[in-house]
Amino acid sequence: MSETKKRERPVSLVNVPTKYCAGCGHGVIHRIIAELVDEMGLREKTVITNPVGCAIWADLYFDTDTVQPAHGRTPAASTGIKRVLPDHLVICYQGDGDMAAIGTAEMIHAANRGEKFTTIFVNNAIYGMTGGQMAPTTLVGQKASTAPEGRDPDAAGMGYPVKVGEMIAGLGGTRYLARGAVDTPGNIRKTRKYIKKALEAQMRGIGFTMVEILSPCPTNWGMEPVAAAEWLAQEMIPIFPLGELKDTLEIPPLEAAS
User: Domains in the chain and their CATH numbers?
Assistant: First the structure.
């Protein structure tokens, strides 16, 4: 593929101005997904579910079918769509508040059942759209509008950052879990490989797949974009290590007892 070809806008990505803040990772993640949908030739058979939060704007940018479920109900909607349209590529696009707070029950049970859609989990360790409140993934010591002195595990109601990938890795229905980041070109390339692997597994009818993506939120972190990318690398990645967290895609099925 030529350099010129690489710079072309994916067909599955609509050519409109972005609403995302400068330095936000959502746009990069959108492009990765759109490129892979094009490569797989599935634009007419792709459904993206995007909930309340910054993810709600996703339907402005993808030239595919999209559904906006109620906050936290994205896995439930994705479950229904995939069961009715098993030959479609169903992408559950969630932020940390949607997945790890109001939608925890839906996410855990969909994963445990092995529902055959792919979750793209964007973790920016903050509530982005609603004012920078502390999220389930906010780091210890990280400041937020509801934790102005920083997250304190000993304070009432704060606790520790939730590691979603590690939490659901032990569930029987999860088949592929990975964590990438969009802070550097190298990490973007690795994240793209993880997402491709998850989407291809889905289309082979394999169980629950998810890629968590660490993404900067300069506006609510109170940083310039470059500083936000550096903070992600220095502070987030040590807490949320990158790589494939679970990969059972190559394990053959158990033979029936004789």
Answer: 29-247 (3.40.50.970)
Q: Count CB neighbours of 130 within 10 A.
A: 13
* pLDDT greater than 80 at residue 252: no
Backbone dihedral region of 113: left (phi > 0), alpha (psi from -120 to 50 degrees) or beta?
Answer: alpha
> Among 225, 134, 232, which Cα is nearest to 181's?
232
Strand pairing class (65-67; 118-123) = unpaired
Burial of 238 (C-beta count, 10 Å sphere; 0-12/13-18/19+) = exposed
Query: What pLDDT shows up at residue 130?
Result: 81
Non-local (6+) Cβ contacts of 6 within 8 A are: none
Cα–Cα distances (Å) from 72 to 85, 202, 237, 251, in that order, read 22, 22, 25, 32
pLDDT beyond 60 at 255: no
Question: CA–CA distance from 9 to each of 31, 67, 71, 186 (Å)?
Answer: 8, 23, 30, 20
Contact 36, 195 (CB under 8 A): yes
pLDDT > 50? residue 13: yes
pLDDT digits (tens, 9 = 90+) for 85-106: 999 999 999 998 888 888 999 9
Residue for token pair 């993880």: 194
Contact 218, 24 (CB under 8 A): yes
Q: By the 8 A CB rule, do 48 and 54 touch?
A: no
Q: Are 112 and 83 in contact (CB under 8 A)?
A: no
Question: What pLDDT is attached to residue 254?
Answer: 45
pLDDT in tens, 25-73: 999 999 999 999 999 999 999 999 998 888 888 889 999 999 999 988 9
pLDDT average, residue stretch 122-134: 89
